[in-house]
From TrEMBL:
Entry keywords, A to Z: ATP-binding, Nucleotide-binding, Phosphoprotein
Domain Sigma-54 factor interaction residue range list: 137-366
Source organism of the structure: Desulfarculus baarsii (strain ATCC 33931 / DSM 2075 / LMG 7858 / VKM B-1802 / 2st14)
Modified residues (4-aspartylphosphate): D52
Keyword check for ATP-binding: yes
SMART domains named among the record's database cross-references: AAA (SM00382), REC (SM00448)
Protein's UniProt name: Two component, sigma54 specific, transcriptional regulator, Fis family
GO BP term, example: phosphorelay signal transduction system
Ranges for domain Response regulatory: 3-117
Domain of life (superkingdom): Bacteria
């Protein structure tokens, strides 16, 4: 809702315009003289001012500068008389947002208001974005820039945010950035990976337990929800929550209260909720697999992160950023790359998104050893084969054109495709890290528990 001030000496016109503005969901006030209007502006709080040129105490255009400079820097829409051709030109030259000619229909009069408010919102978001600390987040493609605006909006509020996107698109990175830029940044950022919560321990992990609550509970333990008190609780892979846990969570979200196992009383926790998913929760809710009331609570704000194939312009800056990080991490000097290397990276469809790109760079660095320049042949063999096949048979490529129906392109179902990619990635990861799980965790960017869960799920876990 915006605040609009109408400065016009015509009482009836003011009332009609104020009524129309209120119908549009905003608040309106009016002043019948320039002096009264300026006084209201000085008190602040207005987003848009309608300013009539012919006023009893002077010419509105001569007061424009002072009105624009008032607190909140409102946008000003000038109202000029029909027989005043110079008025419009003067209004624009004086830096007004727009002008309307009187008399005009109410619809025509309020049209510039919507545009002025949109402009104002975008200006505010861009300002907020400039003020954000976004270490480690790279991207300027318009599809991605819109997500950064949402991030700024999320950081400035307490709203629950649902971050959607394919695997490896940066959902956790965004969640951390929202926390770090929010008023809660001094509190903890607690991650609950909903895909690996072991059924038998889930309640104790989330809600905590008292000493002796069950066999083996030799000490009382705070659960993750209590740990998030004063900070942010991030439900990663929220689409994997079992129906029973969805029910429990809904209650915690409604009341911010929970009962640790074995406790006589309930405890409370003041946390801000963020959640992420790579699943279509709407479809799951429609099919009864996800509670609609929970979904409603999770998604006050939604950030839809685009897959890397839809933000091709960002590949070069992502490569520079991550190459620099990786070279520093492994104590190597800065590396260059051949134009073909970058062309190959740009041509790939990256079904595993930024995570897959980072992993390919890591493998290229390992393959290049001390050589100062990365070439195509340093890239993982699987990626080179995929590129070669794609250039020989474009339709065999991973979907560069996601809009085309998968069946029409002879592709397997997405789930099957993703599993195959995950399996391929993990096999390569184990090979490169030679079974060193600490390194595999560092390289993959996955948590240790998530990595083990994936290995198990795909039948790659060691049997020892
Ligand atoms: N915009 C970005 N700029 C720089 N690095 C990024 C960006 N997006 C993702 N990454 C990197 O990609 C990797 C994966 O990111 P992240 O774990 O946040 O993805 P995710 O969407 O949460 O993945 P998953 O769904 O598999 O949990 C990390 O190494 C992260 O630093």
């Amino acid at each position: 809702m915006a605040h609009v001030l109408i400065i016009d000496d015509d009482q009836m016109f003011c009332e009609m315009l104020a009524h129309k503005v209120e119908l549009l969901g905003h608040q309106a006030a009016f002043a019948h003289s320039l002096a009264q209007g300026l006084a209201l502006c000085q008190a602040g709080g207005y987003d848009v001012i309608y300013l009539d040129v012919r006023m009893p105490d002077g010419n509105g255009l001569e007061w424009l500068g002072r009105i624009q400079a008032s607190p909140g820097r409102p946008e000003v829409i000038i109202m000029t008389g029909a027989g005043d051709p110079d008025g419009a030109e003067l209004a624009i030259k004086s830096g007004a947002w727009d002008y309307v000619k009187k008399p005009s229909s109410m619809q025509a009069t309020t049209l510039p208001l919507a545009r002025a408010l949109q402009y104002r919102q975008e200006k505010a978001a861009a300002g907020q974005r400039r003020a954000l600390r976004l270490e480690g987040i790279v991207g300027a493609d318009p599809a991605f820039a819109a997500c950064l605006d949402k991030l700024a909006q999320a950081a400035g509020s307490e709203a629950a945010v649902l971050i959607c996107g394919e695997t490896g698109t940066g959902k956790e990175l965004f969640a951390r950035a929202i926390h770090e830029n929010s008023a809660r940044h001094g509190g903890s950022f607690v991650v609950v990976d909903c895909s690996v919560l072991p059924q038998n321990l889930v309640e104790s992990i989330l809600f905590g337990h008292e000493k002796g609550a069950f066999t083996g509970a030799s000490e009382a333990r705070r659960g993750l929800i209590a740990q998030a008190n004063g900070g942010t609780l991030f439900l990663d892979e929220v689409g994997e929550l079992s129906p029973a846990l969805q029910r429990s969570f809904l209650r915690v979200l409604q009341e911010r209260r929970f009962r640790p196992l074995g406790a006589a009383r309930e405890s409370s926790s003041d946390f801000r909720l963020l959640a992420a998913t790579n699943r279509d929760l709407e479809a799951m809710a429609a099919g009864g697999a996800f509670r609609e009331d929970l979904l409603f609570r999770l998604r006050t704000l939604v950030i839809d992160l685009p897959p890397l194939r839809r933000r091709g312009k960002d590949i070069a800056s992502l490569v520079s950023h991550h190459l620099e990080l990786l070279c520093r991490r492994y104590g190597q000097g800065a590396k260059g790359f051949s134009p073909e290397f970058m062309a190959a990276l740009t041509a790939h469809a990256w079904p595993g998104n930024v995570r897959e790109l980072v992993s390919a760079l890591e493998q290229a660095l390992a393959a290049a050893g001390p050589a100062p320049t990365l070439h195509v042949h340093h890239l993982p063999q699987k990626l080179r084969i995929a590129l070669a096949r794609a250039s020989a048979h474009p339709l065999e490529a991973a979907p560069r054109q996601p809009e085309e129906p998968a069946q029409a392109m002879g592709l397997p179902p997405l789930k099957q495709y993703r599993q195959a990619m995950d399996r391929q990635y993990l096999q390569e990861l184990l090979r490169v890290c030679q079974g060193d799980m600490g390194r595999a965790v560092a390289v993959s960017g996955l948590s240790r528990s998530r990595l083990y869960a994936l290995l198990k799920q795909l039948g790659l876990a060691r049997q020892d």
